[in-house]
Amino acid sequence: MKVQFVDLKTQYQPLREEMHAALEEVMANASFVLGDAVTRFEREFADYCGAAHCVGVASGADALHLALRALGVGPGDEVITAANTFIATVNAIALAGATPVLVDTKAPYYTLDPALVEAAITPRTKAVMPVHLYGHTADMDPILETAKRHNLLVVEDAAQAHGALYRGRRAGAMGVCGCFSFYPGKNLGAYGEGGAITTDDPVLAEALRMYRNCGQSEKYVHPVVGFNSRLHSMQAAVLRVKLPHLEGWNEKRRQFAAMYNELLAGVPDLVLPETAEGVTPVWHLYVVRHPNRDALMAHLNGRGVYCGIHYPVPIHQQAPYRNERTVPEGAPLTTAWAPQLLSLPMHPDLDEAQVAHVAAAVREFCG
Question: How far apart are CA 192 and CA 213, in angstroms?
Answer without folding.
Answer: 19
